[in-house]
Specification:
Barwin-like endoglucanases; Ribosomal Protein L25, Chain P; 2 domains; 6-stranded mixed beta barrel; two-stranded antiparallel ribbon; elongated; disordered N terminus
Length: about 350
């Protein structure tokens, strides 16, 4: 995660949220909350504080509430997390006021996905763009120690260097990193942009996710992603996962109930409500990215695996590009809310 920044968390205003039935299945929300709580506890609560706990409560208490309610309902057949009356009675709400002026104080809501693409185990035809594993000189070095050693190979090269073939035969660092999989140019760009990609290979589908980067910050002023100098190395994954401090595994994500955001100022594991073009949804802040450094006006909604931009747009366009965002806290002192 990015280092602390000398900026305050987002402004919150206590207000009544007009609840409707949340859009995603409660079971998916509970699953993400449970695995985010697992990651939060494994990191011993050392993540950034984000939104002030004296207002919206502690991350772990809120996630435990979601998990407890969900597990009790699974046994009883109820679905309180989909009941607007229950949510209105049992959750206090504060609207997040973005630090960039926007109509109705809505935040920017983007949508991210995992592309399903084809790949090869070796270079072939159009499949000439590999996702690289961490260079070999970083084997066995934990993340904290690696960050303090800027002589490591991964810090030496820009995205342009890697794409141009610095690790391939004849390159300046040939043999110092291993290719994990070979993609075509467009799939390679999407993998770097989205952070995770599902690759269809002869042996089946394999997930790849960003691991560590070259230490160059994402340039928000550069719109052409191919001109970004930042570069991520990849690793294989067993699930689409969000953020966590190594060696902890990030939470397994499910579509429409997990968002990426500014963990420093919003907070890993925060429970939020989003009112967007297609209704209300409950989400957990379970991921982040380079675009979220000091970003108190945007969230990125995880929308699942899609085979093309067309299928992604068809499935998600009704959500819209903005949302009213609300921080939530369970009212544990209200009868029936535990």
């Amino acid at each position: 995660m990015d280092k602390p920044h000398p900026v305050p968390p987002p402004q919150l205003e206590e207000a009544i949220l007009a609840w409707s039935t949340p859009r995603a299945p409660s079971a998916d929300l509970v699953a993400v909350a449970r695995d985010t709580l697992r990651a939060w506890e494994a990191m011993a609560g050392t993540t950034a504080p984000g939104l002030p706990a004296d207002i919206v409560g502690s991350v772990d208490a809120t996630l435990r509430w979601v998990v407890d309610i969900g597990e009790a309902d699974a046994r009883s057949g109820a679905d309180r997390l989909a009941d607007p009356r229950y949510l209105s009675r049992c959750l206090s709400s504060w609207q997040w006021i973005p630090d960039v002026p926007r109509p109705k104080n809505h935040i920017r809501l983007t949508r991210y996905l995992v592309y399903s693409v084809l790949g090869r185990a070796a270079p072939e035809g159009l499949f000439q763009f590999p996702l690289w594993a961490l260079p070999k000189d970083e084997a066995g070095i934990d993340a904290a120690a690696a960050e303090g050693n800027r002589a490591l190979t991964r810090f030496r090269y820009t995205r342009q260097d890697v794409v141009a073939g610095v690790f391939r035969e004849g390159g300046a660092a040939a043999g110092q990193a291993e290719p994990l999989v070979w993609l075509d140019r467009e799939a390679h760009e999407q993998a770097l942009l989205q952070g995770t990609v599902a690759v269809g290979l002869a042996a089946g589908t394999q997930l790849y996710n960003v691991h560590r980067n070259n230490g160059i910050a994402y340039d928000k002023s550069e719109r052409d992603t191919r001109k970004q100098r930042a570069y991520w190395y990849f690793r294989t994954m067993d699930a689409v996962r969000g953020w966590a401090q190594e060696p902890v595994a990030g939470p397994a994500l499910r579509p429409y109930v997990a968002v990426a955001g500014d963990l420093q100022n919003v907070g890993f594991g925060r429970l939020l409500a989003l009112q967007s073009g297609d209704g209300v949804r409950l989400v957990v802040v379970a991921d982040t990215g380079g675009a979220f450094v000091d970003n108190r006006h945007q969230l990125d909604l995880y929308t699942g695996v899609h085979s093309s931009a067309a299928t992604f747009q068809a499935a998600t366009s009704a959500i819209g590009d903005t949302a009213a965002a609300w921080a939530l806290k369970p009212r544990l002192d209200v009868e029936g809310c535990r």
